[in-house]
Every structure is written in C-alpha cells, then in structure tokens.
Amino acid sequence: MPVTRETIWAMANSAPGALPDFGxxxxxxxxxxxxxxxxxxxxSTALERIRSEGVGERVIYFYAVDKDKKLAGxxxxxxxxxxxxxxxxxxxxxxxxxxxPSTATVLDACEFFVLYKFFAFxxxxxxxxxxxxxxxxxxxxxxxxxxxxxxxxxxxxxxVVGFHLSQVRDVSPLRVxxxxxxxxxxxxxxxxxxxxxxxAFEATLxxxxxxxxxxxxxxxxxxxxxxxxxxxTIQALRSTRVTARWxxxxxxxxxxxxxxxxxxxxxxxxxxxxxxxxxxxxxVTIGLSIAISLVAxxxxxxxxxxLLHWLKLDPKIAAGPITLAVTDLAALAFYLSIAxxxxx
Length: 344
Prior knowledge:
The protein is mainly alpha-helical. 63% of the residues lie in helices and 8% in strands.
C-alpha cells in the first residue's frame, strides 16, 4: 500500500489513543519485553537466552550490558545471526549507542527517530541502565505491517514520524524558538566578530574608499558560494556516510569548482573596478581576494554540515547560521588583509 498524503492525514487524525500524547514521558511508552545480553557471553549463549526469555514484539536490535548492567552496545539481529557461535558479544556489538534519556518526552523521542532514522532506541536512566525500548511503531503502527521490501517501509515510516513532528511544532512557537534561536546566535557572534575585525582595519578602509564600496559584494559572493556548497552537501548526506575517503574526494571537488568560480568572479569584478575607478591596485586587490575567499567559502560549505552530521546534529537547522558566520569572518579577513598588503 503506497503512503499518500491522505493516508498520513488519516493516521494523524485516527481514533483517540492511536497516537501517544507528545508531552508524556517516553519511559511510560517503552517496551520491557526484551532480553538483555551480557558483553562477555558468546553468541551461542546469547541465542539460548533469547530463546528462553522470548523476544516480545518486533525486536530489531538487541542491547548488550556490562557487568554493572549499564548499556554497553547494540547488536543488530542480522549481525547476531550471521556471527560464529563462539564469538563473544563484545566482539561483534556496536559500542557507540544512541539512547533516549528516561526524562525525555514522546516529542523528544520523535525527534530522535526523524534525526537518526533508527527503528528503535533504548531508554536509559541517569546511570545508563536500560529501563525500556521504544520503537518507531509507537508513532506509525499501520505502516509496519507485512511488506515485500524493506526500504519503502523505512522511508514511509520516517515520513509519517516527521509529519507528526511538524504538526506538533506548528502549534508550539516556544518550542520552535528554543530549538532554532541558539543557532541564530552564531550569526550574531559572527557579525560582532566581523565588526571588530573591520575596526582593526579602520586605516585601510579610510585610505581607500573603493574597498568599502565593494565590501558588500565580496561578502555576498562568499555567502552565495558557501550556501550552494552547503545545500549540495546536505543533500548528499541524506544517503552518504561521512568517512575520511568521502570527505577528501568531496573537498577536492569543491576546491576545484570554487577555484574556477573564484577566478571567473574575480576577473569580472576586478574589471568593473578598473573600468569604473581607473585603479589597478584596487582592481587587483578586490579580484584576488574574491578568488581566494571563494575557495575558503566552498570548503566551509562542505566541512561544517559534514561535521554536524558526523556529530549527530541536524545540519539543516544548524549549518546555515554557522556556515554564514564563519564564511563572513574569513572573507572579511582575506579581503582586508590583502587590501592592507597591496594598497598601503
């Protein structure tokens, strides 16, 4: 059954009780019918425990705990079933686990599913002990029925979860403010830093007004290039895992593209300055600073969202303000430093 907008709307407005209250503590909705595996047990022993304790409903991941019963790793079902029987759980588990704190609300959990796109998360207390497991069917039960293929299920489920999340956010301006405002402070900080930096080059700006005339144009070009690179990077990150090899290849490509953009833009703007002001030094200064700063802007547009994605932060919200702030600061530093060297 394909998931249409009408299907999503019907799910969101189904009978009372179909969806949990988004303000409820997530611990109240967590399942507890699941076995916990010890890190020092073998795969054979782990399978015996699973058979004896049962798996409850729709187990997707198994979680391993250490001797203090604290969360130590996650073990996908496929990895467990395909490993050697004498291997130990700690050898095949994934030690880095994203867990939902027991103090979180259902809305907080919904954000976890939309951001990380896992089918289940452990719920842990302050001491990292598992108090339950919550899976995505808490929000989209109708979509997790028998289907022939896995990927459409995954896409449809998170489409529905994101739909519910956007509904809640639409009616909570304060939550939107709390979520987005801290990232805007990066723009405020960047603008303040640019003002301080420009003040340090007050003599350069005063001695050559043409530099001040083209300041807005230089910053605008850098912001445009960085936003273009950032948009392409965020789109790529939807289906790409950030690795050193991927980042190196992407960085090389961005540098080459930005070098051509910078050279072309620098020649055009430099020619405009030369024709208008009849000032060769100013034309060289502005053209050269554009050529250099656009390369840096493209690199920032790639690196910042990649870093945020690797840190498990949302690059769609955070990358824009941070990228623009860093790009403006770098562009201004290049522009005024080159102007000082050439014109003074």
